[in-house]
Amino acid sequence: MNKFDIKNLSTQEKIGQLIMAGFHGTTVTEDIRNLIKDYKVGNILLFSRNIESAQQLYELNKGLQEVAMKEIGLPLYISIDQEGGMVTRIFDDATFFPGAMTIAATNKVENAYQIGDMMGRELIKLGVNMDLAPVLDVNNNPKNPVIGVRSFSDDPEKVALFANANIKGLQNHVVATAKHFPGHGDTHVDSHLALPKVEKSYEELERFEFKPFVKAIHEGIHAIMSSHINFTNLTENGLPVTLSKRALTDLLRGEMGFEGLIVTDGIEMKAIHNHYGAIEATLMTVNAGANLVCICHDLPYQIGASDRLNQALLNGELSMDTLNERVERILKYKEKLEPINFSETYEDVKTIVENDETKAFSKQVVFDAVTLIKGQPIKLAKKALVIATLPTATSIADEDSHNSKLGLRLKQEFSQLDVVETKVQPTESDIEKLVLKAKDYDQIIYTSYNGNVYQTQIHLIDALAKLDKDLHVLALRNPYDLYYTKQIKNYVAFYEYTPNSIEAVIQYLKGELTPKGVAPIRYE
C-alpha cells in the first residue's frame, strides 16, 4: 500500500504538487504560508536570499515543513541549486564545496562521489531534500556564457563518469537532479536572458549531449531538469525543450526510458517568459511531460499558474489523467524521503553541518585541482605586481562576488607584492593605466575571470605580454584564455573564485603548492 495515496488529494492539492515556488524572506513569511495553505503548493525552491546562516536555514526549513504537514499532510520537496564552486547558495557555517570542473581536474572519480556524499549529508541535515545538481552539460563550446566550469568537462565520457559518481553520493541522502537536459554546453546564449537555438543533428546529440544523461538514467537518477533551448532537430514548432512533448515525453520518457521526475528550469527565465509567458508556459510544460514547475520569484505568477491549471482542467486543455500521472510520480519519490524529525534541534545536526573534516577534504580537492597548463610554476620575483580581476556574477545562476577577497589576502600574506584590483571588463583607458604601471616591475601576475566572456581581459593580457616581462596568468574561473591568445607563456587554472581557491592561490605563490591537476578540457 502506498504511503501517499493520490485518491486522498483534492484537485487543488494535486495542482499544488506540480509547483515548486521560490519566495523572498528568511523566515516563513505570510506569502509563502498562504501559498501553502490556500493554493496547496507542495514544493519550495531556496536561493541565497533565503539564507543567513546554517541554523537559520535549518529553522526555516523545519518551519516550512510544519506548515505543509498541517495544511496538506505531505512533505515538501525543499530544493536548492547547490552545485558547489561558482553556483553555491549556502556560504556560511556549512562547507563551501568545490565545483564540477574543479573536481574533474583532480582526475579522481572517487572525489566526485565523496563530495556528493558529503554535500548530500549536509543538505538533508539542514532540511534540504532535493539538490538541483549536478550539471551534466558537456561544455564543448568555449564561448558558452552560462556553463563553463559548472560542467565537469568538454568530453562527454568524462562528464558521464564524474557526474554519475557525484549523483551516487548525493542520492545517498537527497534527490539529485541532472541538468540541463539535453545539454546547455554548446550554446553561446544564456537562457536566463534569451532563447538559445542549437541546430545539431540528432546523431550529433547522441554522440555528445545525450551520453551523460543516458548513463544517469541507466544508473538511477531521481530527477532531470529540462533546458530552455530550441533544439531544431529535436523539438517541434521551434519550441524549447521545456515545452516540447517530443523532447520530454517521446524522447526522455519513451526512447530513453526515464521513470523519475522531470523538473523545469526556472519558468520565469526570459527564454520562456518573453516568448510564452510564465503562466501559460506552466500549462504547456505539464502537458509536455513535466512533473515539477520551478516558479522561482514572483507570487503573481505562482498564483496565476495554479489558477490557469484549474481553468485548463475545466475546459479540457489539461486532462485529469495527465494531472494524476504527473502527481503520482511525485508522490512515489516523496515516499522515499527521510522522515522529518520535528523534535530535533540545530544542536543535534551541528556536528554534521559544521564539520571540520568535510571542510578540510573540500579544501584539499580544490588544492589538488590546481593545474599548470602551460609554462613553469611561479617563483616570486622581488619586484612583482599582481593585477587581480574582481569577480562578478556572470549569469543569474551565479551569486554576486560574496567572496572577492583575493586582493586583501594577498596584501596580508605578501609584503613584497604590489596589488592592484581591476574590473572584469577593463576599458582601453584601464588597460593603458595598468600597462603603464606594470612597466616598473620584473614580474606580472594577472588573475583572469572568464576572459572567454569578458574579452577585454584578453586585450589586457596581450598588452601586458608585449612588455616582455615574466607574465603569469592565473585563471580563477573558466580556463579558456588560451583559446583566444597565444601570448600567455605561463598559465595556471584554479577553476573557481571561492574562499578555498583564494587560499590555493596564496599557497601557490608562496611555492607551497605544486600544481598536479589534469585539465578536463582540451587545448588546441
How would you sum up the global shape? globular
Q: Spans of 5+ residues with little confidence (pLDDT < 50)?
A: none
Order of neighbouring strands in the sheet with most strands: 9-7-5-4-3-2-1-10
CATH topological fold name of the largest domain: TIM Barrel
Helix % is 40-55%
CA radius of gyration is: 24 Å
Our estimate of the beta-strand percent is: 5-15%
Main beta sheet? 8 strands, parallel
Number of separate structural domains = 2
Gap between N and C termini: 58 Å
Number of strands: 16
What CATH architecture label of the largest domain applies?
A: Alpha-Beta Barrel
Structural category is alpha/beta
Helix run count: 19
Please identify the top-level CATH class of the largest domain: Alpha Beta
What's the CATH H-level superfamily name of the largest domain? Glycoside hydrolase, family 3, N-terminal domain
Domain Glycoside hydrolase family 3 N-terminal: 11-332
Organism: Acholeplasma oculi
Keywords: Glycosidase, Hydrolase
Pfam family, one: Glyco_hydro_3
